[in-house]
Amino acid sequence: MTSHPDLQLEIDGDVAIVRLNRPAKRNALSDGLVLAVRDAFQSLPDTVRAAVLDGSGDHFCAGLDLSELKERDAGAGLHHSRMWHGALEEVQYGPVPVVAALHGAVVGGGLELAAACHIRVADATTFYALPEGARGIFVGGGGAVRIPRLIGAARMTDMMLTGRVYQAEEGERAGFAQYLVPAGEAFSKALALAKRVAENAPLTNYALMHALPRIAEQPADQGFLTEALMAAIAQSAPEAKKRVRDFLEGRAAKVSKG
Ligand code: 1HE
Asked: From the CB of 228, is ligand 1 less than 6 Å away?
């Protein structure tokens, strides 16, 4: 449990399951719920090595709670958006990799939240939209930064200008999700992936969460140096040495064609 009635936290071994639990409102993100997501990722127990982010009911998340959208002056709007940024940063740059289990509506701020996760699994009922354009507003939860990195600025521009909705299959092709599964199977696939992620050396997961996205944004000459520094740190960990030894001495699994 968390301290917010609309957010559930379960611990399953070394995986945390964080679930938006406001199905009657399609998991719309009130300010309180956004802050509860932040708090949940900020205070995961030390034993947790990966997380799943899920939504109760037929929809992952309907985005910003529009009933709270009131007249704000520019300063208040700025702070509101920055509050979302702070919360979603805790998801992206929190303690552990997060696998999103997508189904039904993944729209507006719900898509921004999904984009802050590290892996997205979508089931066949998933659809993606950015209705901000139709509501006369703009993204404010980091979507302008994260969504173009998934699908490109041209697709995002089209979605916001025309209200285009991507269905699950074309959404996977466009880059919203890395996995597409049958209806009702997003959570179980996400949990299986999170358990696999939890087995990695912690420093490898750290490098993938914290170094890779920054290296990808650096000019190549700086990126190569950052990569070399991260590689040197990761390979020096006792856990890395043990894993390499295990492979060389025939105790670790080979890469298999699947
Ligand atoms: C909501 C919200 C919401 C549903 N805020 N209450 N997001 C949107 O513009 C998407 C708005 N929602 C929808 O288009 C649809 O609700 C869904 C496609 C997600 C789901 O449709 P459906 O038919 O299953 O549900 P529904 O009947 O539309 O909604 C059920 C209830 O949830 C209903 O309340 P009720 O009291 O009449 O039962 C809806 O009002 C309520 N509900 N979505 C508040 N979003 C950081 S900036 C981010 C900016 C944005 O995210 S803008 C995009 C907002």
From this structure: no
